[in-house]
Design goal:
Structural class: alpha/beta
Number of helices: 7
Largest sheet: 5 strands, parallel
Strand order of the largest sheet: 2-1-3-6-7
Mean pLDDT: 85
Strand content: 25-35%
């Protein structure tokens, strides 16, 4: 099987290529491209690959633009640093997505789905992508997010406004961390369940265990590996690590 990677961060592309090699030795990576322009030119001058890994946000646009400018019939796996609820709509037909940093088990699951999709036969994906983009736009326009959250402090039930929330953290349970450093227990069972209710303009999923409130971020620094160390405002003053794969998305989110 021959695959194409379209990813504008060289280190991320290198890591993905290595992970694909480790997970599926029968997949040959034909090329690693960094932009919409490069991808369109390559697809117009080469035989179509059996699979494409597409980063959603590229330096010169989004990977959706590729579908508008050329024909793509092969299966597609999108990669993204931002686990927006609407992106989950991609898990249909020949379209799937992987959250960065890519998990080996999730990659294996996506490749198993690819085998099924290939057996079913493929059609032009442009109409599917157009439909999904429209669904995402409609969802964002009509989506209502929670602004108040119920949590528990001992035997007391406490209602907390999102303005008084520094973030959420998952340990054995999912805790609500207030801006005055209280740690309250919530009834949420998974971070994905919680994510459906959070306004993505206010809360950022720093990693699989932590959501941050934009109003609680004091500063951040980049370490020698490209990871971010984000410090929250006092009295919380916690430092949260963000992977290099999510670093650029975080900066864009923080800047509004």
């Amino acid at each position: 099987m021959k695959a194409l990677i379209v990813e504008d961060e060289p280190l991320v592309a290198k890591d993905l290529k290595k992970l694909v090699f480790e997970s599926a030795a029968d997949i040959e990576i034909l090329e690693t491209l960094a932009s919409v322009e490069e991808a369109v030119e390559w697809l117009n001058t080469h035989a179509e690959p059996d699979l494409m890994f597409l980063d959603i946000q590229l330096s010169d646009g989004t990977s959706f633009d590729i579908f508008e400018r050329t024909t793509v019939r092969c299966p597609v796996i999108f990669t993204t640093a931002y686990d927006d609820y609407a992106i989950r709509a991609f898990k249909v037909n020949s379209i799937d997505y992987l959250l960065k940093p890519v998990d080996k088990k999730e990659l294996a699951r996506a490749l198993e789905k690819l085998k099924w999709a290939t057996a079913q036969g493929q059609t032009d994906l442009r109409e599917q992508v157009r439909t999904l983009i429209a669904q995402m736009a409609d969802s964002k326009e009509t989506k209502h997010y929670k602004e108040r959250f119920l949590a528990h402090q001992g035997k007391m039930n406490v209602v907390v406004s999102q303005n008084n929330i520094a973030g959420f953290q998952k340990d054995a349970l999912i805790y609500l961390i207030t801006t005055d450093k209280q740690q309250l227990v919530t009834d949420f069972e998974t971070m994905d369940e919680l994510e459906e209710l959070l306004n993505p303009g206010v809360f950022f999923r720093a990693n699989r265990q932590v959501f941050l409130n934009v109003n609680s971020v004091e500063s951040y620094r980049t370490d020698s590996y490209g990871k971010l160390q984000v410090k929250l405002k006092a009295p919380v003053s916690t430092v949260v690590d963000i992977s290099r794969e999510k670093a650029q998305t975080f900066k864009q989110w923080l800047g509004g």
